[in-house]
Design brief:
16 helices, two-stranded antiparallel ribbon, single chain
């Protein structure tokens, strides 16, 4: 029989391994307290850290979005708008000041000022809304050489009216000095009287097919109608807003899954259900924004609240372990998408802060959502992982392979809204790591395992 000599280094390794096993086991170590390898920081976010993220976003946007108008030929800055007799355009920038995405950004900046008590965010919004108002008041259309400004003067779709209308009204109610009423009235007239509707009054489009409902259009219309109801006191705007939520939901909400399909075409016998994340974001944000101003004694209030609660319950089932949601909510092999995650984070945080849903149930997932979103704001203040503008499709490849881009404007407003609302959530509630997980802290109770 041969005898083999085991190298000393191997003996030392086996000895240390045995010692390690002996020291780390169920009898010697509280294994439930071992630190997992989380892909997204699993921490309770702090206001100062959230504010740093918002500051980076602000700095990037302030440098990369227009804040003045220039001569369309010479590109010289124009400071005297009263002349109104030269061809003008916005100064070059990376984003369009009159897009619906920027309507969300203006609202996000306003909320960020409330949450941080820093006026620079609101100043960003007010400066640009004042600029848009000044152009509309002082320049003839033949002198305006910016096609996007012309579209907001003569909306061709809800995209050019709803989000800006809501932002203008919010800004006016928070101190904007501009005479924005002509623009506000123009926007709401388009939504109420000019946008195509189905025979039952549901706002619709004739693209990509005739008589098509886009879930996005809940947001492109309802918050403006709701804000107009508050602004004017005219209940007809509330009535139309509630009707839109109910009629979109009746056709497009999958009660079993608790989420919405993206598109609905009247002529289809079967309706392909692609549960696109950002469209679901527009829907949840719509209901939160409506409940914010809808009188509680309005006959539609309880129904909208119940629909919001059902949607939040459905969305909670599809949150990924990273804190993000997928591009198609119920298809985990689609990519993790930032703008939708930010919209859900904002909307659920606001629903908690307004008492629409239970904070013990939904606050931890909301904080995880913010941690995920924050990880996508790079050092430049750019928001990564946002799906570009997206029409409607009826096959999976269309949604699976939509590009992402840091200049996809859809990501910036939601990030501002999410960070601001989470700051407000943290202000009014305390959280703790309880038995290794993030929990709402209940005063006077200590349920941690020792």
């Amino acid at each position: 029989m041969k005898h083999y000599q085991i190298p000393v280094v191997v003996l030392l390794f086996l000895g240390s391994l045995s010692l390690s096993i002996a020291q780390t086991n169920d009898a010697t170590t509280p294994l439930h307290l071992m630190q997992p390898e989380y892909p997204t920081p699993y921490v309770i976010p702090q206001k100062e850290n959230i504010t740093k993220v918002l500051d980076r976003v602000y700095t990037f946007l302030d440098k990369n979005s227009a804040s003045k108008i220039v001569n369309a030929t010479t590109k010289a800055e124009i400071t005297n708008y009263k002349k109104g007799n030269e061809d003008i355009m916005f100064e070059p920038g990376s984003f369009r000041l009159t897009s619906y995405e920027w309507g969300v950004t203006y609202a996000g900046m306003l909320l960020a000022s409330k949450a941080t008590a820093d006026p620079k965010y609101a100043d960003y919004t007010n400066k640009r809304l004042q600029l848009i108002s000044d152009i509309a008041a002082n320049y003839k259309e033949q002198n305006i050489k910016d096609k996007d400004m012309l579209k907001t003067l003569h909306p061709e779709a809800l995209d050019f009216a709803g989000a800006l209308c809501a932002a203008f009204i919010k800004a006016k109610q928070e101190g904007l000095k501009a005479n924005a009423d002509p623009l506000i009235n123009n926007y709401i007239d388009f939504i109420s009287n000019k946008q195509f509707r189905l025979t039952d009054g549901t706002l619709a489009r004739n693209r990509p097919q005739d008589n098509t409902l886009w879930l996005d259009d809940m947001f492109m219309s309802v918050p403006a109608l709701a804000q107009m109801g508050k602004y004017t006191g005219n209940v007809k705007y509330f009535d139309d807003a509630v009707k839109q939520v109910n009629q979109f939901s009746g056709r497009m909400f999958n009660k079993e899954k608790g989420i919405y399909m993206h598109g609905w075409v009247q002529s289809m016998a079967d309706h392909p259900q692609f549960h696109w994340a950002r469209a679901n974001g527009w829907a949840i944000m719509t209901m939160v924004e409506l409940l914010e101003v809808l009188p509680k004694d309005h006959p539609g209030y309880a129904g909208v609240l119940a629909q919001l609660q059902a949607h939040i319950k459905g969305l909670a089932k599809y949150q990924d372990g990273t804190g993000f949601w997928h591009q198609l909510l119920d298809r985990n092999d689609t990519y993790l998408e930032t703008s939708a995650t930010a919209i859900y984070t904002y909307s659920i945080a606001r629903a908690i802060n307004r008492g629409y849903v239970d904070k013990m149930t939904y606050a931890p997932m909301t904080l995880l959502g913010w941690n995920a979103v924050a990880s996508k704001v790079n050092d430049k203040g750019q928001v990564e992982g946002t799906c570009v503008g997206t029409g409607m499709g009826f096959d999976p490849a269309f949604y699976y392979y939509r590009p992402i881009n840091v200049f996809a404007a859809h990501g910036y407003g939601p990030v501002l809204l999410a960070g601001a609302e989470v700051i407000l959530l943290l202000k009014d509630n305390q959280f703790e790591i309880n038995d290794s997980s993030i929990q709402l802290k209940v005063p006077g109770k200590n349920n941690q395992i020792k």
